Amino acid sequence: MTKKVLIAGESWVTHSIHTKGFDSFTTTEYNEGVRWLRAALEQGGWQVDFLPNHLAPREFPQTPEALSAYDAVILSDIGANTLLLHPDTFVRSIPTANRLNSIRDYVKSGGGLIMVGGYLTFQGIEAKGKWAGSPVEEALPVTLHYHDDRVEAPEGVAPAVKQAAHPALSGVPGGTWPALLGYNQVMAKPGADVLVSVGADPLVVTGTFGKGRSAVFTSDCGPHWAPPPFCDWAGYAPLWNGITNWVAGQ
């Protein structure tokens, strides 16, 4: 049986201005940060569909029924506005589905949802992620702040496992996890399971919503908050497969 997961986000465009004395010119570069997560899940037998940020406004599924084609949905470094503002609505003032409602209802009816940290998930840089107070927050096992929720740790901060026996962590090798360089600060909801903490805050949290399951990983799935030693760690693929399998009820 095929396991299907949709990853939305994890891309960006960098527009640079190069100034050389009197003269200047610009360059533009497209980047994706999904390759470590995608490779890990494909290694675990998942069929991965990836919607980068520039395609998600139009192509992200609009209804819970359309989302139900997937066993799990992963939102990673994608702001709520990207899914709220379909081009038909933003450009042409045509009403379209509220996809944040659709994600919530997808989980409530049995779907699996994971939110991964970054500058535009949870509340993010300058609070521009805009997920706090949204329908998606209802489905998550954590409560979000309304302010910029980043905790930058350039010196590195080591995750601490709290519930090693949880099925989501069953394949992760024991021992010390590699350090991370930052995360989004959230608060676990009552009844949720904090599997791993970072500093004084949750890193991996799981919970249920209606008939479905959800989880968060509050740091990055790739650079910059997840540096190469974390992405190359032997526990990286087992961690992501464990979390995704769990939310999907596998």
Q: What is the gist of this entry?
A:
The protein has 250 residues and is α/β, with parallel strands linked by helices.
Task: Describe the structure in your own words.
The protein is an alpha/beta fold. It has one domain (3-18, 25-247): Class I glutamine amidotransferase (GATase) domain (Rossmann fold), CATH 3.40.50.880. Helix content is 24%, strand content 34%. The chain is built from nine helices and 14 strands. It has helices spanning 35-43, 56-59, 64-67, 80-84, 87-92, 99-108, 135-139, 228-231, 236-247, and strands spanning 3-9, 11-20, 23-32, 46-51, 72-76, 112-116, 142-144, 150-157, 159-161, 180-184, 186-188, 193-198, 201-209, 212-217. It has an eight-stranded mixed sheet, sandwiched between helices. Strands 2-3 form a two-stranded antiparallel sheet. Strands 7-11 form a two-stranded antiparallel ribbon. Strand 2 (11-20) and strand 3 form a beta hairpin. Helix 1 (35-43) packs across helix 9 (236-247). 47% of the residues are buried.
Structural key phrases:
alpha/beta, single chain, globular, Rossmann fold, 9 helices, eight-stranded mixed beta sheet, 250 residues
How do the strands and helices of this protein lay out in sequence?
Elements: E1 3-9, E2 11-20, E3 23-32, H1 35-43, E4 46-51, H2 56-59, H3 64-67, E5 72-76, H4 80-84, H5 87-92, H6 99-108, E6 112-116, H7 135-139, E7 142-144, E8 150-157, E9 159-161, E10 180-184, E11 186-188, E12 193-198, E13 201-209, E14 212-217, H8 228-231, H9 236-247
Parallel strand pairs: 1-4, 1-5, 5-6, 6-14
Antiparallel strand pairs: 2-3, 7-11, 8-10, 9-12, 12-13, 13-14
Helix pairs in contact: 1-9
